[in-house]
């Protein structure tokens, strides 16, 4: 089972446990600064409860057939849904061309 967590209220984003590399690629520098600012600002405010995550993982692990992938947290679920919509749109955009590639 692959657990893909959103943000949980742990020490992960504290200044003591997280070090960010300095942006070294100009094209990505602004996006990196935005990400660091956002993540630094959410320290101690993450929406996920780590104790509830632990209980959920134990519950799923005890299943006869646990899921192959688990979106842990409302923010992770939102990310999954967005990715699924994007992939479906990409598949549909060239569906006819994709489907025409088999041997005759």
Give the tags.
104 residues, mainly alpha, Rossmann fold, two-stranded parallel ribbon, 4 helices, 2 strands, 51% helix, 8% strand, flat
Residue share in helix: 40-55%
Structural class: mainly alpha
Principal-axes geometry comes out as flat
pLDDT under 50 segments (min length 5)? none
Question: Strand portion, in percent?
Answer: 5-15%
Strand order of the largest sheet: 1-2
Radius of gyration, CA atoms, in whole angstroms: 19 Å
The CATH superfamily is known as: NAD(P)-binding Rossmann-like Domain
DSSP E strands, number: 2
The third-level CATH topology is Rossmann fold
Overall structural domain count: 1
Determine the mean pLDDT. Answer: 94
Short description:
The chain is mainly α. It has one domain (2-99): Rossmann fold (3-Layer(aba) Sandwich), CATH 3.40.50.
Structural commentary:
The protein has 104 residues and is mostly helical. The protein has one domain: Rossmann fold (3-Layer(aba) Sandwich), CATH 3.40.50. Helix content is 51%, strand content 8%. The protein is built from 4 helices and 2 strands; from the N terminus they run βααβαα. The chain has helices at residues 26-41, 50-61, 74-93, 95-99, and strands at 2-5, 69-72. A two-stranded parallel ribbon has the order 1-2. It starts with a strand and ends in a 5-residue tail after the last helix. The model has no long low-confidence stretch (mean pLDDT 94).
């Amino acid at each position: 089972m692959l657990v893909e967590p959103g943000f949980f209220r742990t020490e992960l984003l504290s200044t003591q446990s997280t070090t960010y590399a300095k942006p070294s690629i100009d094209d990505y520098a602004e996006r990196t600064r935005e990400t660091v600012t956002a993540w630094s600002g959410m320290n101690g405010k993450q929406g996920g409860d780590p104790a509830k995550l632990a209980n959920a993982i134990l519950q799923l692990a005890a299943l006869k057939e646990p899921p192959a992938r688990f979106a842990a947290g409302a923010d992770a679920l939102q990310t999954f849904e967005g990715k699924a919509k994007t992939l479906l749109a990409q598949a549909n955009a060239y569906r006819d061309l994709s489907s025409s590639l088999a041997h005759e």
